[in-house]
Design brief:
The chain is α/β, with parallel strands linked by helices. The protein has one domain: Deoxyhypusine Synthase (3-Layer(aba) Sandwich). About 50% of the residues lie in helices and about 10% in strands. The longest helix has 20 residues.
Amino acid sequence: MNDKERLLSGASIEPQPITGGESITDMVDGVFFAYNAGRLREACQLFVRQMLDDDCTVGMSITGALTPAGLGMSTVIPLLESGFVDWVVSTGANLYHDMHFALGHSMHRGTPRVDDVELRANGVVRIYDIFFDYKVLLQTDEYLRQVSMRDEFQRPMSSAEYHYILGGFLREREKQLGLEHKSLLSVAHECGVPIYTSSPGDSSIGMNVADLALEGFKCAFDVSADVNETAAIVLDAKRNGTSGVLVAGGGSPKNFVLQTEPQIQEVLGIQEKGHDYFIQITDARADTGGLSGATPGEAVSWGKIDPDLLPDAVVCYLDTTVALPLLTSYALAGHPRRKLKRLYDRRGELMDNLQSAFEAAREFRDARPDGEALIDVER
């Protein structure tokens, strides 16, 4: 094949006319051919055909106010329950607003064209075009403080452990209220999916934990445990298969999912090559220098993504609230449920493996004072 034949080897763009009877799968595979529709098709196909292999461990990051808009219930919970997402890094705000639904509170469709002074005067809070009663915040805060005062929380712990215990209490409250599949934290507790927060103090959850510290309670987030536990998850994934990341948005959670590889390679000195699969849905540009817009190619330079697998990386420049439901529907229609990996239940084992790999790497490094060689710990 000559260069011209190679360049023109892609399938012809010849879609069938839309009839109104198409499924999401039909639309993605048969209509989404170019531009960001084409990137979404690539992302959907990469997710279903490779990332959902049984030996791939899938991490997801969540930013933007997705749970108040209902995407926790409509998309993230189905991904967790189907075994399509094995661990999560979320903003604290998404988890805090997720709690409202477990407690029986309601969020309402509103409009961005409104007088915010009028909203404040009437005790209504706005997240763009989502409205809710200010009392929802006060009542959620009170529940959060009361639960966090319990003995189970009176020690330093990783954010995953805090969220797991909190999710158990929320599940019981849901049962009392006759609710099902409303809370991401509740479902993650049941499925054994660890949920981390990259900045635990940057949300109303962290604010209420800080309030309790002033009252003498010992509940605290161990951020070093978060860094090491997430690295342990990825090291295990790479030693026993592959690792994929699904990035919804950007920001700190994106970096926290991806920094696991630099933590393993650069800091702990264990030989690795980066995540195998990368999908990001974002509206951020790369040329502003923000992490949210950083490309997979740039991530390769940090060791975050395996350079040999860069073709298995897709960025969709789309609104997450549009793209993520489409990807979720495509995945549920095109792939059977996977067995839950229940990584939360394996935290101790995974940390022991990371500790052993770190000690072996340190021993090897100490024997090589030039620091040039990294050890490849046997699987």
